[in-house]
Amino acid sequence: MNTTFDTLGFTEIKDMLVQRAVSPQAREILLALRPFYSESELRRNMRETTQARQMLDLVGQPPSPVMERTEQYLEKAEILREKGTDRSKFFRGQVDKYRWMDYGSSYLPSELNAAYLYAQLEQHKKISDKRMQIYDFYNENLRFLAEEGKIQQPYVPEECTHNAHMYYIKVHDIQVRTRLLKYLREKDICSVFHYVPLHSAPAGKKFGRFSGEDVYTTKESERLMRLPMFYNLDMEDAKRVVDAIASFDGF
Length: 251
What we know:
The chain is mainly alpha-helical and 251 residues long. The chain has a 3-stranded antiparallel sheet with strand order 1-3-2, with no helix packed on it. Helix content is 53%, strand content 3%. The longest helix is centred in the middle third of the chain and has 18 residues, at 124-141. The chain has helices at 10-19, 24-33, 39-45, 50-60, 65-81, 87-91, 111-122, 124-141, 143-147, 174-186, 202-207, 217-221, 235-247; strands at 168-170, 192-193, 224-226.
């Protein structure tokens, strides 16, 4: 068969899978895509999604070991998400009622969390503008330290935008960072390091592995520190943060 997914509609793709006797779990992957794509979007994005790549494998050749493992856990993951029930199958018309099947939980936000989020969404521009104001203030007023080679500031490519999720600086090494964090704490300013690399964490050592040579991951993680960044941070307090970092003589 020379026809490609680029030229097929959803119904034709589904029929092709049925004709090829593809497993029900594999068809569910395709069916799960349906609510999120129109016919044209489905065709256009078919080759760009994980599900689509799995579909191409299934139609063109026998299931790979990776796909077989995916099928093995697909239904379990769906049940886990649906509070331990087969509710998704019920909505797809595959069962006449849904029942408690296995382990599961509720991953929906509580009414209180939802209400808080709703209020934030209503004020999203105001919140975003304030965070950008703080970010720009830090960036402008700490630039002289970057020019002196004492810190490194965030880099945002010209063609990109950001949402002021955080503001970080990089210092020379972990010794400088430790001294600066202590110095800021003594001035009642809460600044924190960013993360511990996953491969060096207890679970990372137990379940994962590092591929290649660790040239940058650990070194860069030890240089990073985050400055206070939240909506109701007063700009006078942001100035106090900048002044404290500027007065630090341990770079």
